[in-house]
Every structure is written in C-alpha cells, then in structure tokens.
Amino acid sequence: MQAIKCVVVGDGAVGKTCLLISYTTNAFPGEYIPTVFDNYSANVMVDGKPVNLGLWDTAGQEDYDRLRPLSYPQTVGGRRASSRVGWFLYGEEAQTAWTPFGQFCLSLPLKDVFLICFSLVSPASFENVRAKWYPEVRHHCPHTPILLVGTKLDLRDDKDTIERLRDKKLAPITYPQGLAMAREIGSVKYLECSALTQRGLKTVFDEAIRAVLCPPPVKKPGKKCTVF
C-alpha cells in the first residue's frame, strides 16, 4: 500500500482544521481553535487503489513560523505524533482508532503532497499564497507537488459576507482569480470546497492522492500576468 503524507498550510482561520475534521469525521466543528499540530491517518480507496493518507494540520499564525516546518515532508522520520486513523471507502468511515502515524506507515513507501489553502472570502489570505506560503513550501520542499485550495466556498455567495467585504472595498476571490494564482505558482490543481457543506471536499483529497500516484508533468511557476 502506498503511504502519502499530505501537509495542509495557509493563513490562520482559513479553515484548514475544519477541512480535515469535516473530511475525516463528516462533522463540521462548531468553534475555531488555533492549530498547533493535529495529525490524522486514513486508509482510502481512490481509482480502485488503496492508499494510506496521512493528513498533517499546521498552524498558520506567525508565532509558529519556526515550528511549522517540523511537520514538512523531509522530517517525517523524526516525528511520532499520535494520529487518528479512519478507514474510508469512498468517503464512508468504517472504523476509527488511535495510532502513531510514523509507526502505522513505517513499512510503507512514503510520498508527499502539499495543500496550500486560502479563504475565498479573505483577500489577504489569498495574497499570502504568493507572498508567504508558496515561497515557504518551495524553500523547504522544492520538488513536492502542490495543490491550491480555496476554502469557505459556501460564503462566497453569502449576502452578509459580501456586504462586509464591500464595506472594506473588498470582494470574494473568484474562480478565475484562483486559477490564475494556481498557474502562477505551478500548482498541480486549483480546487474550491466548503468544509461546512462538504461541497468539493472529497475531490480535494482525491486529487491530492492522484497528484502523487499519477504525477502530471512538472509545472514551472508562471508569470504574474498569466493569460488563460
């Protein structure tokens, strides 16, 4: 069985932890808790292939800038954090248990993938993809595939959210804007999802797995004025 380590990065409060909890438990958490490190491991079937998917949550706040790289792929052998293990067949959980992630997949071939997340209703988090997260990921892991993920899709058309952004002379991030950013940073895919409604949620992790199992030709970062 192939083991894949999927590391989720992005600004604080963009919904990284909710993304993982909603995917692994089919339940949306009710309140925001700043993340330190919460790691999950799930056995999933994608395209008929069994995969052990290790999900690594990270803290986006600046206070954790020095600690966060400890969870990046090149350090996997050095950590033995507890992880929640779920067995999934096309998204349906059969059973759960707790086990050390490193111990669980110690004998499995390990490959890595990053999800760089931003909130579709937070232009600042979108700009930080270019300014902070892509440079940080590429500095530590220059050859690891990246998927760009826009979160909180359910709020992009929410009237109250749009009004609050308009008061600040801002607007939600559109799909073409996200796609252009993905091309700019050489992302394998650009995906949008909602942890609350689970729209597009399973696709995010299926595509992360496919990026490892069937890697596309290497994409080089594009120019800022990419035309599509």
Structure described in brief:
The chain has 228 residues and is an alpha/beta fold. Helix content is 29%, strand content 28%. It is built from six helices and eight strands; from the N terminus they run βαββββαβαβααβα.
Q: What would you note in describing this structure?
A:
The protein is of the alpha/beta class. It has a single domain (2-213), classed as Rossmann fold (3-Layer(aba) Sandwich). Helices cover 29% and strands 28% of the residues. Strands 5-4-2-3-1-6-7-8 form an 8-stranded mixed β-sheet, sandwiched between helices. Helix 3 links the parallel strand 6 (110-119) and strand 7. The longest helix is centred in the middle third of the chain and has 18 residues, at 123-140. The radius of gyration is 17 Å and the shape is globular.
Summary keywords:
single chain, 228 residues, alpha/beta, Rossmann fold, 8-stranded mixed β-sheet
List the helices and strands and how they pair.
Elements: E1 2-10, H1 16-25, E2 39-46, E3 49-57, E4 82-89, E5 92-100, H2 101-104, E6 110-119, H3 123-140, E7 146-151, H4 159-167, H5 175-185, E8 189-192, H6 201-213
Parallel strand pairs: 1-3, 1-6, 2-4, 6-7, 7-8
Antiparallel strand pairs: 2-3, 4-5
Query: Into which percentage range does the β-strand content fall?
Result: 25-35%
Low-pLDDT runs = 75-108
Subunit arrangement of the protein: single chain
Computed structural class: alpha/beta
Strand line-up of the largest beta sheet? 5-4-2-3-1-6-7-8
Helix content: 25-40%
CATH fold description: Rossmann fold
